[in-house]
Amino acid sequence: MAGGDVKRSLELDPSIGAIEIKITARARDEDEVRTALESADVASERREIYFFDTKELDLFESGIVLRGRLVHGGTDDSTVKLRPVVPAELSSDWKKLDGFEVELDAVGDDAICSANLTVDQDRGEIRNVASGEREKQKLFSGVQEKLIDEHAPAEIVWEDLAVLGPVEVRKWEVQPEDFDYEVTIEEWVLPDDSDLVELSVKVDPADAAKANDAFKELPRGRGIDTEGDAQTKTRALRYFTTGVGIE
Fold it and tell me: Domain range for residue 24?
């Protein structure tokens, strides 16, 4: 995506708070990324991600992702994500709500706007839902439920939703030399051991064009190919329907 394309996308609505630029490493480059992290002695944060959807992914197909994130050594949380959204069509009440975020995800040649609402969870609550000891609905706050009700198909009820996961995640935060932005690197591993490695930077919209151009050059300078289609992490959801991992 050209820097100008990113800038034009951001001009659509002032409620967009940040842009997250993402690059998925090709399979042949994943080992090189891991080796670089190990040599830099950067510690990773471990996470377990659970999704809540029907077996046919009806919520996902309707533009809704329900997620529980268990963070080892950190604070667990649950998220309601809407993707894609048209910011101008979102109620101003949501935009003013603390914790409600509107972002633009730049992935490959696509720029997709999303909105999410995240709340913290007490330790053990996500595991209890995953094991069936706790109702899935109790993982989401009343405000999150209202957001779900406004956007989910009316015919889908909580009893229809399955627990999909976990996806094992390792996350690193890296500050490369001679680069103005902190880089987040995530490795997502599905139950069949297929995986993807994603690099991303999150920047202020005013820095979008500059950051986009610089970020694309960063992996290229290390011999990592950034051309071609990119896989978004939420596509990992399809594994739980098809049984086919990330290729």
Answer: 3-237
